[in-house]
Amino acid sequence: MKLFVLLSRIPYPLEKGDKLRAFHQIKRLSLTHEIVLCCLNDATVEQSSVDELNKYCSSIHIINLPKYGIIYQVLKAVFSTKPIQVGYFYSRYAQLKINALLYKHNPDKVFCQLIRTSEYLKHYTKANKTLDYMDVLSKGMERRIEKENVFLRPVFKLEYLRLKRYERKIFDYFEQKVIISQQDKDLINHPFKERINIVANGVDTQYFKKIDTTKSIDLLFTGNMSYPPNVDSAVFLVEKIMPLLQTKYPNITLTIAGHNPAPSVKRLASANVTITGWVEDLRLCYASSRIFIAPMNIGTGLQNKLLEAMSMHIPCITSSLANNALMATHNESILIGNSPKEYAQHIFSLLENPELANRIATTGNAFVIKNFDWDNNCKQLERIICT
After folding, report:
1. Are residue 232 and residue 144 in the same domain, yes or no?
2. 135: which DSSP letter?
3. Cis omega (within 30 of 0) on the bond before 13?
4. Number of domains observed in the structure of the chain
5. Residues 6+ apart with CB under 8 A from 12
6. CA distance 20 to 113
7. CA triplet 50, 229, 71: central angle to 5 degrees?
8. Whole-prediction pTM value?
9. pLDDT for 229-279, tens place per residue?
10. Are 365 and 271 contained in the same domain?
């Protein structure tokens, strides 16, 4: 089967969640199907990224979105009913290119990731189409409203309402729909949302596996550090949790590792807090840490960082919000906190009770291996696409 895949970004390197999901899906679908990959692009493309994707795709088509065009489309979206996120990634030029590629390749099935790309395919009728919502962008936007500058809140509220309407409207243009978790599925505002299939992410347990090394990092947090939910979590960690920890452990250390740290993240650096920026091999950070903590207060979807840390046998702490997608059991395979005091208490418990830390790490590892396997989840996606 020939599968046409449309993405809003080139899915390599794997520094963002949507890239990670798309890359592993393409990699496994390519074992039994021909992949024609089309990527929108607003950044510099490294040849090494294209070379990696060429291993799995019969052809790769990159459609560059010039900055002046993006500005025009965003302004156009502002004065329409479309979400700004959809406007950002849409252009008439790209539409014509995608139409030509669809005509040339005549795919058996069409698959697109995120509602950002759905506008290009909604009227295509020559093949069954699958939309991967991935997560619910509207809910993530709603959770950001109160975190933003008071003057920007009306803009974020308007974008939230537009996203919510668009997520409902676009549903009817696609034969199949998938999403990353039950929590996200429940948030889609459509009367037939039960028809959405849940396809979770996975983790490469052969790559992210236990490494015995010196534990030089007390606490670790990772992710794309320009992504607002991660920025919010990093600031929360340093400003709200670390002061509580330092009353008992003045020299406790926190490492925040991840791509493109925002200025507000860089400013968190201190004698106790290390901001690494891009790390070539995050496994070394995971393996060197005593505890992984992800105090997510906003955002949606499934936290890949937790899957990776748990796969590497690191005891993890997160919020109820993040665990609603993960669905791990508190005090069995993970610890759940919802306030600075609760997070601090969990950290003290893990540092002072090696048996508890080992139990949480071991059970967490088993939980991830059982529930988050890329091969199984991609086989499920394949069945849905091929319906």
Report:
1. no
2. S
3. yes
4. 2
5. 19, 23, 49, 52, 53
6. 12
7. 60
8. 0.91
9. 999 999 999 999 999 999 999 999 999 999 999 999 999 999 999 999 999
10. yes
Among 270, 237, 234, smallest CA distance to 251 is for 270
User: Length of the chain in residues, anyone?
Assistant: 387
pLDDT tens digits for range 188-200:
999 999 999 999 9
Model pLDDT for residues 330-357, shown as the tens digit of each residue: 999 999 999 999 999 999 999 999 999 9
The Cα 374–Cα 167 span in angstroms is: 26
- Which pair of tokens denotes residue 50? 């294209």
Residues 86 and 108 in one domain: yes
190 assigned to some structural domain? yes
Nearest to 181 by CA among 200, 202, 196, 203: 200
Lookup result for tokens 């990527």 = 39
The span from the CA of 134 to the CA of 111, in Å, is 12
- Residue numbers of the chain with a pLDDT score lower than 70: none
Torsion angles phi and psi, residue 33, rounded to 5: -140, 155
Q: From CA 128, how far away is CA 58, in angstroms rounded?
A: 20
